[in-house]
Amino acid sequence: MEEIRCPMCGKPNPDHLETCQHCQARLKPLIISSDESLPAEPDNNDAGLPDWLRSDQQDEAPSEAESEAESTPEDDPADDDWMNKLREEGDSAPIDNSALDESPVYEDSEEGDWLDRIKELRDTDEEPPEEDDSSSLFDGALPSWMSEGGEEPALEESPAEEDSSIFDGALPSWMSEKEEEPTTDEVIPQDEAPSPEPGASIPDWLAASEEQAAELDKEVEVDESELPEWLAGSDQAEPEPTPEETPILFPDLQEAAAPASEELASAEPSDDELPDWFSTKAESSDDSPPSSEPADDELPDWMTEPSGVEAEPATSIPESTPDPDIELPAWMLESAEDVDAQPAAESTEGEIPDWMSGEEAEPQVSTIPAEPDPETPDWLEKIGDDAIPELASDDLSPTGEDIFKIDQLTELLRDEDDLQIPEPEGAIDDGLAPAELPGWLEAMRPVESSADGDSTAEQGQTEQTGPLAGLSGVLMAEPEIARLKQAPKLSSRLQVSETQQEHVRVFRELLETEGQAEKQAKPIVVSSQGLLRWLSAFFLIFVIGLVIIGETQFVPAPPQASVPVEVLNTSSLINSLAPKDPVLVSFDFEPGTSGEMNAAAAAVVDHLMIRGAYLTLISTSPTGPALAEYFISTVQREHQYTSGSQYVNLGYIPGGASGLLGFVQMPQRIKPLSFDGFDPWITAPLDGIYALSDFKMVLVITDNPDIAQSWIEQVEPRIQDTPLITVVSAQVEPILRPFVGGEGAQVRGMVSGVIGGTAYEQVTGKDNLGRTYWDALNFSLMTAIAAILIGGIVNVFSILLRSRNRGEA
Amino acid sequence: MTISGLIGLAFIIAFSGLIILFTAAKREQPESGLRKIPAFSRLRRAIGLAVEAGSRLHLSIGRGNLTGPESAVAFVGLSALEGMIRSASTGDNPPVATAGDPSLAILTRDTLSSTYRDIGNIEHYDPTTGQLAGFTPFSYAAGTLPIIQDEKTTAHILIGHFGNEVALITDASERNGDLTLTGTDNLPAQAILYATSEEPLIGEEVYASGAYLNAGPMHIASLRAQDIFRWVLIVVIILGVLFKLAGIDQIFTDIFGGLL
Amino acid sequence: MNLNLKLKSPVSTALAIGVGIVVLLGYFFGNDPSGEATTLGLLRAFLLQGAIVWAGVAMLVGIFNLASVHLAKIRANEEASYSFILLITLIITLGIGLYDIVETFTQQEINFQRTSWIFNYIQLPIETSLMAVLAISLTYAAARLLARRLNLISVVFVGVVLMLLIGAMPQVAAQAPILAEIRQWILRVPTLAGARGILLGIALGTIATGVRILTGSDRPYTG
User: Fold this and answer.
1) Is C58 in contact with B11 (Cβ distance < 8 A)?
2) Domain A577-767 adopts which CATH fold?
3) S-S: B53 plus which of A259, A518, A589, C27, CB 3.0-4.6 Å?
4) What is the pLDDT of residues A550-561, one digit of tens each?
5) What is the C-alpha radius of gyration for chain B, rounded to an integer number of angstroms?
6) pLDDT band at A479, cuts 50/70/90?
7) C121 neighbourhood in chain A, CB within 8 Å
8) Which domain holds residue C183?
């Protein structure tokens, strides 16, 4: 019976066992093709995520890539920070490419901006750029709340500690537990693997960090001592199972992948050249578990739940618009100048709130596109589908290979001198010998099962190499640094989904309309109503105009028998006047009604003038005196009445009824001057007049029932036997009629409207304005009756029709 | 003093006493017992809508003379203006008021400024919101038309003394699709408004505006006093008709004839 | 007894109430039995004179108000075309009126021909035209009434309008005297009765408003 050595505890087990009889570790892990495993689960997660969270995840991609672009291979303290973060993230969090694939950061239109800035930065400043420059490039990508987080000065002082603290706060509990479990036993050796020989294939920034590497060596040594022997060997062998799988970008890894148990020791010299982020990683990994606890407390439930999903989609910093006003921590500023080939994503961590860091940390464990991008450059295609997932994808890309349009990147980076892009083909040619796995390890590799995409999708990320190959949900075998790749193209713009854009649009409209006066919905004016209005106007104007212009007299005047009694009384009272009798005439109507009032009063005043009465004109309306003058000088011009001799215009009495009362009580004090500006009380019309009762008659011409009432109430009681007669508009007649009567009534005579004026002309036997307007009046009445009838019928039928249609509907 | 003068004085004193009595007695339930008038319900709704929509209310107090009897309805319009400002003071566009008489225009401005000051919102007071539209009836109507045609204005409250010219205002308002609530003391104008206005106040309903717009407890008390005296007048008229029919009215004429 | 009187400006409130009471009492006690004016009557007459003068001054204030409002609209560029026309015509009319007054007093000859020309040939036709438009509007409103409110009252309203219009045509009345009789009956009975009832209610409302002002409850003034 063959034995299978447990990959966890190293103890032998019978080969038929599925799990280790000593430690219960799975002996025959399920290997699932990474081609299918990676995008599947994040998609599922995405589906369950709210839109805003999805957007966060999408937005993280550009921010990570952006921070990569801002990094440089130069050896500076900032490298420690982001590398530590990289390592932590690589150890703990899976990467989801699905969201990244959807992200529009790879669009050409958006690549140009940030890359131009990168070029500018590098062209203008080979040295670390000014803080403002870097911040201007980067800060804009962060929302304000993120920027605030990024302003913590502690990051500059103690980057490593700060990084760990950042992660602590960001990691949910489930992740903290995971971090506790793997420790350096698993992580560090895997980190070593891709970097045994810094040199040709390792970028400058990595090769240059020798000092950090020295520190890392110590870590590695310590870690190795804690490893079981079998695992130490297998760890070294895991990146290079076959020549085909040999990483092309890192040919050195092939050497490191030489299958020997003592390769770990042989890798030690190369560890000297490793940057010190390895050492800080050890610190951070040690520190992270305790510090992650309080972070969980700070996380709300809703955030903790999605964080608990292992295959959390890769997230990005949800803003990418540069804002020069926002300050960045030093490490980020430095990384901003390191625009070439930096696997950043962590350079923003200092500014990302804890919860966001947690989201970022998750996806980076396992999100690598399994299938080559259709736009994958030739050199990458040559690598083959097998090799990419293991090294270039799984290990080298911190954010996932397919988040970038690689062809565009390579074309772009071809011009970038500082970019240390490993020569793929050269790497193959010079390449390392294919690693050979030990037989026992080869036998236990569940490669056959790797095609089972469904199970992988359910279990999350599946380890592709090393002794843990086939196990799902394991921590990354290779550090982030080993997955170094070209600088991604980033967008400096905020990436938002269509749904978010719609939300933004609605919210913006809401805000914009908030301060504006909203026009209330107004009913649609029915066009038939407008037509009715125009038809009414047309026919009225046409008929009246035709009759007036034609001066027709088709319609006979009212017969004598139909003359009202009040009209006859008026005529009788005027006939009783002697020549030069003073008569007070009130012109209390408005210019608008002068047409009707002139026609109604023309015959009456004409009768007065015929009788030779002296007229005193007064008005309680501001326009009354002018109307009186117009009437005397125009309507009754045939009598040639002159002001001051036969008539006097006292003008306007302000104050309405009160003014009228005052005029009744003290006329000479109220009206000391005439309308023309002279003393009226010495003229003939007012000779011997000291009170209103001295007048022989009071005639009120008004279109306003209230004014008529004022005269009746305020004046009539004080004029004793002087008769009060009225010429009123037709609309006043019904209201005034109770006051009208014969002897003893308050109003002794009344002429109402054009009809009354025409009737009065019939009494006096002299045609006047009333007869002139008579035909026009009659025809306009007929037209109005027709319009009201037809319009009313049309409206009623339209309403009935509408209600009927509504009922049918 | 004649007996009619004494009756008039007694009438006024009794009316004042009732108003004061009802004001003191019914302060706890200021709005109880008011019948529903649809026009005021729509007015309140229009005020609310105007505040929400940020639109403007227009109130016109007519062209009655301040020193004439028609001033009473203009004062009612000023009370309505005060209530409107208090209700719509939070709106973006303050109410605008027009008048057809210069003295009323002065009072309109005074009411606007004092109300804004009372509610602590004097910075919202715009002197141009109280304006004289015109001196004559038709010039007043013509001066009001631009305000009606202003798109910001969505409701027009016409409470005051109007004549025929009010038809031009309501016609323009209807064409603009605005709400028009009207009340006047002029009978011909009432007939016109019934046909042209969306919400006409019939008869003396216009004098109840203050009570329905929460202008104060005395407005409600005065309504109750009016109701009482309305019944008194009804009884007097019926008695007069009965006496006339019975032929005993001459007795009263002989007794009080010299005093009346 | 709390009447919630607005006594925030006690001086002006007391002055307004006092003047109102004096004028009211002067109406009843203004003359002694012999017909001579009493002190109250004289005081009332003085106050009335003041009110008349004040009403005249208010016209002037109204002109300034009108001008200031439209000037503000012009400054605010708020649909100022009408305001601009109004101010221009106001200035022209005022100038011509002042010129007529000065000429009258300098030449000792009454000459308001220019002002009269403006009134007779500009204001009068404009306002008369508006009245003509009003006639059209009222015709249209009567036709549209049934569309606005289709109920019994509206039907009666339109019916009465038509009846009165038809009855007002003398030739129709001569051919069908019954129509003239109906018209007269409508005018003298229901119309008059309704108008009387409404006027009584309006009178009560006017008294109530006056009492509120006299007691300071309604205070359309500040001070």
Assistant:
1) no
2) Rossmann fold (3.40.50)
3) A518
4) 888 888 887 777
5) 21
6) low
7) none
8) 149-218
